[in-house]
Amino acid sequence: MDTTAPRTLDPALLRRAGRLLLRALSLVACVAAWQWASMRHLDLGLLTFQNVPSPQDVLDAAATLLESPKLALHLKASVWRVFAGFAAAGIAGIGLGLFIGRSRLLEDVLLPPLEMLRPIPAVAWIPLAILMFPSSELSMVFITFIGALFPILLNTVHGVEGADPRLVASSRSLGAGRWTIFSEVILPAAAPNIVTGLAIGMGTAWFCLVTAEMISGQFGIGYYTWAAYTIQNYPDIVVGMLFIGVIGMGSSALVKKIGDLAMPWYHMQRKKR
User: Fold this and answer.
1) pTM assigned to the model
2) Each residue's pLDDT tens digit, 190-209
3) What is the rounded radius of gyration, in angstroms, for the C-alpha atoms of the chain?
């Protein structure tokens, strides 16, 4: 007689599968609503879909782009600009954020001008970027740098300022020096905020890509989207938008994944919640 108990599915696995299914259904529902609105040429007065391409039109345009040899050149140019700007913003934002968060003097000296620059949209930087840099390529990298800098900087500052002062005081009472406190107390406490800032910064770097590639160039997904707009090729505009959205989402997810691997203690705490 078989007395083996029947296997039960892991509840955590079921929850994860349920969430993935819900997310997939959400995307399907959005595409279905888009298809319905474009087919009916929906006109709500303030919002109209009379000239919006249907999902099928966008799929056809995407298939044409995927077959084009220019796609690799577009992707290579855009990825280089975004990641170069993001890397520079990560170094500057984390470095400045760590120092500003730990020094009232630097906070008073550096934070006011940075806060004044923060609300300026990326498109407003185009004339200065052209004037400041000797090449259009550096100008485009600068625009993505500006887009990524402030989320990284401010999240780092908030992370440093949010470190538990009791842990700092306890470390001092045990004889820890300034560098030890910084590396073993402040930095681990600020790490989750830093990773969040990096993920947001990556997304905003891609967000600024169209603005950056308006400056000059013959290749780039942002340039492709802007060129499609100038000739009113609506399906290609949506294709460019979707490419930027998908690659930007994947890049941000990659940053968060690397952050989870670098912070196993924080990842375990989140799983227990």
Assistant:
1) 0.83
2) 889 999 999 999 999 998 88
3) 24
